[in-house]
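S.,

Sequence below, as promised.
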Amino acid sequence: MNEKLEDVKVRLQEIMDLYLASAVLGWDQQVYMPPGGAESRGNLLATLGKLQHVKATSDELGKLLEGLAPYAETLDPDSDDARLIKIATRDYKKATKVTTEWVGAFAEVTTIGEVKWEEAKEKADFKIFQPHLEKIVELRRQYSDFFKPYDHLYDPLLDDFEPGMKTAEVQSIFNRLRPKQVGLVKAIGARPQVEDDFLHLEYSIDAQREFGTVVATKMGFDWKRGRQDISVHPFTTAFGPGDVRTTTHFHADQVASAIFSTIHETGHALYEQGISPRLARTPLCNGASMAVHESQSRMWENIVGRSLPFWKYFYPDLQKRFSSQLGNVDLKTFYRAINKVEPSFIRTESDEATYNLHIMLRMELEIALIEGSLQVKDLPAAWNDRMKDYLGIIPSNDRLGVLQDVHWSGGMIGYFPTYALGNLVSAQLWEVVRKAIPDIESQFSQGGFDGLLEWLRANIHQHGAKFEPQELVKRVTGSTIDPQPYLRYLEAKYGEIYGL
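The prediction came back faster than expected:
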């Protein structure tokens, strides 16, 4: 037994405990905390954040990790201990570049910012949120400055969510993806549109929630190690493999919204519940990256959840629960409706063919904000201009436009590109899954989802954050992130639906 390694593990456990305590408070803030608690909650999170940062940047931890470098060379490079030393060293080097004062200020500003964002969204008034976003953008600029020199000002922000990925790489991927997706959307737009009016009738929220619970359970969600609540913006958080929380939302006249939000967040939760217990209370007890995490949620939500075999199994149940709305709607009509392609305002409700365009828009705006070529006060107008350019529509208010996402209020500038990257990874993984499990779609049509979950657990989930995202994707698919499988998937699926 290596004494230095055991010492490091104890220190990392304490750091993770503080991080997870902050995560519990963050979950409560978005689910149960009254608006008046924002200032107090900000103080609590600032104190915990500073304590965590002090421990994470201690000289003692740095010396121990440095001393472990020769020992790590003697280990199997894929072993838990070798990967822990590698990831902990990377995290330490990043953390030591950031000041404790910045960590505290960021926690305070974003806690209040999230509450003000909720108010601004409710009132559809960006000006309520504007001064808080200005502080957040300035703090994220300061954060990037801690990491000079860099290839691009946006690189340190992106790296927080997608370790090792550079802005230029993402832009290159998006440049290959954008014209193909724009062309597909235009081709679909020239075809007769599918009908989906029946999805916007009045649907009981209680019955929606009951159905969502059935679906999440069948997918493999372990209710003894997780729970679901309601929030303004659906999300998933985990305090270890034994405590994974999801949230969703419900709209009486948008039944598909809750269904697919629930499937999406359950996809995230299955990843967290599938991480090996060996990695608990270490930096490895997390997803490899947000793109890999999104590949799980987007695969379940779209490739699986919007597939015909999935609904061959679940549609009779849904139809029975909502007989007055769906009793005369056949399966094929329902399937086409949930896959309708139409430019829309809300990213989380958008179809697969247009979704990535929402993400590219946000990345461009984030880069402009960080570079200073776009001022926060001008953000709503810039948003609307890009919506018109990308999707041919203009939001009628800030709630439908610039205020729709929670991410900026939490300071998560650099996060959005991972959604589109996750779409790409989901399709890459799916091609491998179909070869490994040739009858996978037949299994779905009979309510069998264990085969897919077991494959994901073996190849993705159990490893947590042991491997960097591009490394993990290449290990499983033979290639780093590649847009071609996703384009093949879209063209095949929507070619059939729209007769292209």
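The mean pLDDT is 95.

Coffee later?
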